[in-house]
Structure formats: C-alpha cells, structure tokens
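Reposting from the mailing list since nobody answered there.

I have sequence plus structure tokens for a pair of proteins and want to know whether others read the tokens the same way I do. The first protein:
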Amino acid sequence: MSTPQIPDEFLAKAARRATARMARTDRPFLAERILGVTAHRVRDRRLKADLLSAAADAQLSRGLVPRHLVQAYGAELACADAHLKAGRKKEAAASFANALQLAFHRVPHIDRLHSPLSDDPGGFTARLRASATGRATAAPRGRRTPAAAAPTDRPLRLLVVTRGNANFLGLLTERYAQHPGVELRTLDLAADPVLAPLAKGLQRMIELPLGGQASYGAKVEAALRPHLDWADTVFVEWCSAAAAFMTLVDPGATRIVVRLHKYESFTYWPHIMDFSRVNDVVFIAEHMRELTTAAVPRLLDADAPRLHFLHNALDLRRFDRPKQGDVRFTVALVGIGQIAKDPRWALDVLRLLRSRDERYRLVMVGDGLKPGASAAATAYHAALEKDLAELEPIGAVHRLGPTDDVPGVLAGAGVILSSSVREGCHVGLMEGAAAGSVPVVRDWPFVAGRPHSARTLFPEDWLVTTPQQAAERILAVTASEEIRSAAGLAASRHALSTWDWETVRDDYDRLLLGADRNVSSLVEHALREADTS
C-alpha cells in the first residue's frame, strides 16, 4: 500500500513556518532540516524553488550560509531548464540569472572566512554545469575565422579593455604606449557613452546566447565591431562582466586575451562566458588557475583557451629604500578593506607578541571594512572595532588609513604580515618584501593543502599556519636588528628578482607580442614611417 502524497499546500505551509523560525533564532538547524524535507517533497517545480530561495535569502540576510544553498540554486536551475525546454527563452534566462545570483551571493564567498566554493569547487558548481540552460549559455559559438598571427610589417594593434577598474594596468599600458612595436588603445566600458549601457545586465547577456534578445545583440555587435576590426589583440582585464560582454560577439580574426586575478573565481561570470571566443586566459597565480579550472572544468577541454601563469605587473623597485628609524618592533598590514584580509587574525598575532614584549605594534594601512555590504560584514566589522577599541588606546595599533606613500610607510616597518584567508598574490605583501620588511605569511586557508597555494608562491620559511607560529617567527627574526635586517635584505632580493616589472615584463611581451616577434624589424619599420611622414 503506497503512502499518500502530502498536498503541496500543506508542505509549503510547513516550509514557510520553518523559514519564519530561522529568522527568529540563532540556532536554525532544526528549522533548516524541516525546510529541506518539506521542500524536497513539494512536487510543483516553481513552488519548490520559491520556498528554498526564500529560506536561503532569510539566512543570507542574517550573514549565514544556508545549509541548503546548493539545493536552493539547483531548484531554480530546474525551473530555468523547464522554461528552456518549452521554448520560453526570456523566462529561462530570468530563472538562470536568479540561480546564479543565489549561488554566488557575496555572503558565502566574499564576506566570510571560508567559502563552499573553495571547499569543493567542482561539487559546488556541479548542478550549474549539469543545467541545460547553463550549458546552452556557455556553449561554444566559435568564430568565423581563427585569430590571425601578429603582423610582421607594422606595429601590433593592442586594445586594452576594462570596466571601471584599471588598478593593475598602469605598467602594462605605459610600456605598450611607448613600445615601437605596438599601437595602443584603451577602452573603459564603464566610461564609454555607447558601450556603458550595453555592458551590463546579466539576464540579457544570458538570453542572447539562448537565442533571444536579437535587438540587444545587434546593438552590441554594432558597438564592438569597430574596436574588434581595428585591434589585432584585445587584452581584457578581469574575467568578469567586461570579458563576458566581449564574448557576446564573434571577434573575427582578432585575438582575445583575458586576465583573471582572484575575485572573478568567486563570481558567476566565468560560468556564462563563451571561452571558444577567447584565445588565452592569464592567471596571476597557479593556485587561482587550479581553483578556477576545478570550478569551471571546461577550461581544461581540448578546445579551451591556452592557460598561462604570469605574475602581476608590479613596480617593486620604488619600495627598495633604506629603513627609517627603529623598525624592529613595527609590523605592517597593508590592505584591510575586505574580510578576506582577516585583520582580526593579525590582532591575535599582535597580542601574542605583546605578551612577550610590549614594544611591538601593528600599523594598518588602507581603507577600513565597509560594514553595510552584508550582515556578515557588519558582524565582522563590529568584532574588529571591539578589538581595536582595546588595542588602539594603548598604542598597540595605529590605523593609518589610505595613503599615497605606501613605500614611505613600509620604510618604517620591520615586518610585513599577510593575515588573509585568500589572495591572488597579495600585492601589499610583495611590496613589503621588496621594502626589506621581513615577510610573515599565513598559509591562506582557502587554498591551503592544495598542490598550489601560498606555500608554492612564497619561500617556505615565510609561511606560518597559526597566530602562535606567526608570533614565534616574528620574535625570531626580530631578536636583533642585525638578524631582522639580514632577513629583510634576503626577502627584498627575492621579491625584486621574482616579481618586479623589470623581471616580469618579458613574459607579457612574449604573451602579447609573440615569442618569435622580431622587435628590431618593427623598430626599423617605425623609424621608416617617421621618416616618410
């Protein structure tokens, strides 16, 4: 005898009661279990997704990661796939966008000290990759012709594209603006009056490859085509909205290069991109390539873009200056504006140091946290402010805030600390090492224990796991100024020889100009052009 099916209306009522209870208690686990059971038994696809999404939103609004987050975004994906099967492209795109925004909400991945995506990249994105709508959105649409080889009879036309964030482009654009073998143009999608309104809108970017939004597609084609027709190579900074937007159209014979830093791996953008229209993807760290390809395994397919690891473009020599005054007991932390920097971990290290010698102090450089981003950010900010209220009045901590003279600040620091839970390369740490401050690097938990991590990016003796180990390393390397100075000099030599732009720039030349490119002939060509003009 079969068990009678409980009506959806009854199950929905129970699920809503569970959701309401989660909003009133700090121990929502039983309510979450009830929600999971009831939502699982609901037969109506749309009702199931609505119930799970509402419950997930309730938890996320409190700064908590829902236990059923994958189940919730999976239920919305099921709605998207049903719409797509029925030919409802607009509705499919809307549901798929909802699923992505839920799956990659900032609370689980940005505003906490661990992430379900970093814990299990392939598992977290499995339902997304299994979705018919997801596969159709990112399906390879290819190009009419392969990317052409770099020209040999004229300068390479290089277009550098970003969307509002050019923080790491200065050295690149400066080099190629002056390079005789390159004709450079830059394009900020956020500032261009024609492209700015087109280069946003997740839902329509999804609907276009599904076969909808024909008018939008025509506008994007018309706006991008002059830029693509001019360029031999397009370098897109950040594998996010700008990169996804650029792959909405066939680039023709133009080569497309995309650089991914760190943030993008915890967003939905790589999951909707058509990588068949990208020739090369550049990662600034091996561990970011490893994590990203685990979450987006089609990047490892036979027809995927070429994958590269190139260090960030950093001018580290400006940090190589003599230390100012007695720096032995000053520890610097550069960059505190994100929870991922985990400045509270640094304060734990400071407390341990001061229990041994009260001369140690921490200088915190950069903008502070923005507590309004989410409830999780608000909670961390409140706890941090409580810690600082204890330590600042006694002179243990100095919050410097943002400054235009980071080299000057680091000239007064004997130690540079990386307390982060995740980083791409941690520019502030590299700058501190170049400045001769002794590096102390937390083994970034998001990637710790993987084949590539902070331990494969930095020398092993820089790495620590716990605040206790960090304090012991600092005490050892600052036992005397002679010991500290020698360790700082070794760190500076390593930083300058490994990460400085003078070392790294040849790698970018090989990537963007071509390994066999005859630069001398291009110089001669440029001189002939100048003579004839």
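The second protein, same order (residues first, tokens after):
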Amino acid sequence: MHLQRDSLSTSSAQTQCSGLEGSITILKDGSILHLNARAGELLGLGKTETKGKKLHELITFYSSDDTSALIAEQAPFQISSDDSRVHEEKILGIAIEDRFKWFVFHINPFREEDNTGLQLSFFDVSKLVNQNQILKDKQHQLQLLVASLNDLVFEVTDTGVFKNYWTNDTKLLFYPPEEFLNKSLTELFPADLAIPTIQLIQNSLKLDREFKMEFQSPSEQHKGKWYSLQIKPIHRAQNRVALVIADITKQIESTEKIRFNEHKFNQAFHFSGLGIALTNLDGYCIESNQTLTKILGYTQEEMSTTRFSSNTHPDDVEREIELRKKLIRGEIESFTIQKRYRHKLGHFVWCSVTIAGVFDNANTPLFLIVQIQDISESKKNIEILKRQKLESDLVKMDLETKVRQLEEFAHILAHNLKGPLSNMPMLIDELQVTEDEQVKAEFLNLLKISTGQLTETLQELGDILELRSNKSLIFENCDFLHVYHKVKHQYMEEIQQKNATISVEFNVTSIHYPKIYLESILSNLISNSLRFTAKDKAPYIEIRTTLEEDGTLLTVKDNGLGINLPKYKSQLFMFKKVFHRGFESKGIGLFLTRYQVESLGGKIDVQSEPNEGSVFSVKFLERKQ
C-alpha cells in the first residue's frame, strides 16, 4: 500500500496537521532521547517512562504493503541510522485492538555533540490510508470484472469520438488503440454503421436509457463476424456513453441453425404422411397435424381437451401407460405398439404408434412426440389372409382325408369283395354240371351266403359313401349334456345289466357341430366301453370335455379290456377290424367314428393297455357360427 508523494508531502502534512505532529528523537541504537506528548498520545504510550528505552521494544510497527510486523532491523528509521541516508516519508502502522492506526514518518538525521541519531516527526494518516485501500480494492475488483469479460468496452462522446477502451484481448479491436482513440466513428467505420450508432448514442444520452443493435463486422480481418452493440449512458459524466461490444457470431449461427431445424421439423410435422402429435406428460395434445385429424376425425381443439388414453380401446390402455411411464423415467428411448383408437364416428381404428420423449439438458422430460400410422387396412388384409390360410388348411386336410379314405375304400373293395366274387362263378359252374339235388342245395346255400356277404359289404360301403357325400349337414349349437342323456337312454338296459357307472364333467358345455354326427360319435365310444369289459368287473366310464387352444377336446375313459396298441394301433380305426373275439362286433363303429371326426377337420386318438382300459380322445375343430 503506497500513497502518492504529492498527497503527503512534509509541507502539506504540516499544514493540515499543525500542532498535531508527534516528534521523537532516537539515538543510533534506537534508544529514545526525547518524545513529545503528542507522540506518546498517537503511539498509545501515555505516561509511560520512555527515556533511554528502545523504540522498537516499546512499539511493534507494521508494513503498509502487507500489514506484516517489522523487526527492528526492517524499520526504515533503523536502517536510516545505519546508513546515514535521509528517507522521505514512510507509512507505518501500529495495532490497536483489532484495527490498525497508520502514520506517515519524516525521518531526518541529527548530530549533537557526540550523539548521532534520527529526528522522527509523524502524524496520523489512518483516514487517508483506509480510503486509499478502499480505492485499491475497488480497482482490483474492477480489474477482475473486466478480466472476466470477453467484451469490448469503449468510452465515447456524444459526437462518437473514442476516449478510452477496456478489453482482455486486444485482438478483438478493429484497429490498434493509437489509430482510433480521439477519432470519430464516422472516420473509422462506414456511414451505414457509424451514423445509426451516433444517433443511438445521442438518443441514449437524451432519454437516459440503454439501446441495443446488432451489426456485421465491416473489417476484412473479422469478415463474417456478428456483434452485439449496447449503448449505456455513463452517469456523472457529461455527454459520455459506454459502448459494449460482444461477439455473437456463434449465437447467430446457432439461431440460424435452430431456425433451419425448426423449419425442417415444421415441414416434416405438418406435411408428413404420418399422424403426428406433441403431447404433454399427462397425454394431452399440445399440437397435431392434419394427417392425424384425418385418421381420428377429431379437430385440434377437440384433441387438446382429452387425453389420448381416453380414446384408446380399453384392452390397449394399460400396456401403453406402463410404457409411457418407462419412457418418462428414461428407462427406454422410445417404443412402438399397435393399438386401437376410437374414431370420432364411434368405430375403432387400428394404428401403429411410436412415442419418443424430448428432454432438457438436465434430462428432465418436457413433452412426447407421438407418430401414428393407420394400419386398419393392413390389419383387415392380415385377417383375410389368416382366414384364407385356415380355409386352405382345412381344404388341404379335407383333401388328404378324402384321398386316404378313397385309398381305404379301394383296399376294402379289393379285399372284402374279392372272396365273395371269386366264389360265386365257381359255385354257378358247379350248379350247372351237378345233377345231385342235395349238392345243388348246398351250392345254392353257399351262393346265398356269398351273395349276402357281398350285399352286406356293399350296403355298409354305400352308407359310408352316402355319409361322405352328405352336403346338407346342419351345424347347430349342441349341448353336450343333452346329447349325452339321449345316447345314454339307448344303452340303459346294458348299463343296468352290467351295473355300469358313468361320470360326466362337461367343462365345455356346448359346441357348434352337426348333432347327428356328435350323437353317433358319443354313441360308438360309449358302446365300445360297455361292450368290451371283463365279466368280473363292473364298467366305469368317465366322459369329459375341455377347452384347448384350437378347439374342444372330448375324452371317453373306461376300465375295460384295453387294446394291445403296439400290435394293433395301425389297424385300430380300419374297416371291419376286430381285436377281441367272443364279442358281437362288426368292426365298423370306430371306422365310422374316425370318418365322421376327420371329415370335419377333427382328429381321434387312443391310449390303451391290455386289461387297463382305454382313453379315446376326440379333438373337434372349432368352426365359427
């Protein structure tokens, strides 16, 4: 901390502080020879006996530069006594409680007889030092403030003449300081920039308010640069303003980029083939395009009053809400779902919906972008294709079944008709040549038996062919329990004779099916379960229906004789195949049952073990009513 010499010269100080000056005479070793009352008062010595005592032992002096305590050798009057040089005024301080008191010392050597030393005169300058410190602090703060700015600051008169400048980077100046100081704006810059600036300066002074403008650099050195100019009146200074110039090139470029991106977004938003909406986090529409209006039928005003979830099909709401929560929490960036919106006219529209979030720099969600594509036609076409595929699969299955049945018919014709047909010519030839009436009678009887077998086989095959060619089957709602009671009534005598027990559990209560077929299928399966039983075991039959993914399953389980499947499985549902001797059976029932089931797209299967019973499973293919 230093005061200017001209502000504290000896003469001026004596003039200002006449009669208030302290005086001390010290010898070369620092011992006090004389000290006046004012000196004792200023230094806080009071009536302390000081003569012969050393000054540096009584008083600790402090440097005005950094307020550090000085040892005796560092005190300027001590150094002066050593080198006999005259020191001009020096500022030293003493500590009083929690503050400093400052003095300006005038140091002059003296010689008296054999004594040499220093004459110290001083007075209190605490007020000046403190004021000087405040000014230095403010100057330091100003320097820090200016150092933190990237702007140019000019002091300019009302006529546009540059008087001063501040900057951290002289490269920002359009001209070297010596080329623009004390020169006018009109001398340095083009008229289209200088004249409007001077007019703003004069308006700023006249109205005592700030003005702003933006301009592009006229300097080749800064070509393409954009600047912001702020004009601020300098208070307590007549006809002076501060011109604050900031480089805003990046801001301009950023603004232009934002404008371009906004233009692109607006074009994409309003002219997109997709329906687009901006919604808040609660799902209310902020803005939407015309395509969305065409898809859903609602106007912008109508959509802004309700949430999108309000017009969503109830089955689709929960899943979308859960995904929206994950999006808002930042767990996912976007999601796409297919959902149904309620059109203004009341019907539902299938849409593919993609939703993404927009977040700020703190990763806080601001709003959502919703893109909607009408896929109703695609959904309709997909359903048509699925139905066509199902129909195609049914036709294929039907054709395969018919081909297999035709093959079986060919085999039946070749096998079952071969015997009777081959016997008949032989018997006729024998009848023609024999004259024995008894032999003729036997041959006629054999011929009658062969004819009967042939007629019976043809009759059975005719019934099956008639069943196969029946195009007038009526599909109706068949109640399983009702059909069961009707079939059970047909076998009441046998049920009672064998003390049979039948339990039913119809989890599926009804099926859309030809009733005549369902009665025949259930009748054949119950008949087999009652017929093929051990003599010492009462029949127990369980009948159950269950719902499966692609149809209804009917199971008939018994505790009868069972079937040796490894041996007979391949022949099980074939024409006139019998697996238990001693029972009245033609082997047609299971053949007919399989035929009826498979002709309508179903399947029949069996699980069985000898003496453990059997489980017949019939899978009915669902048909829409």
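Reply #1 (J.P.):
I read it the same way you do. The radius of gyration is 59 Å.
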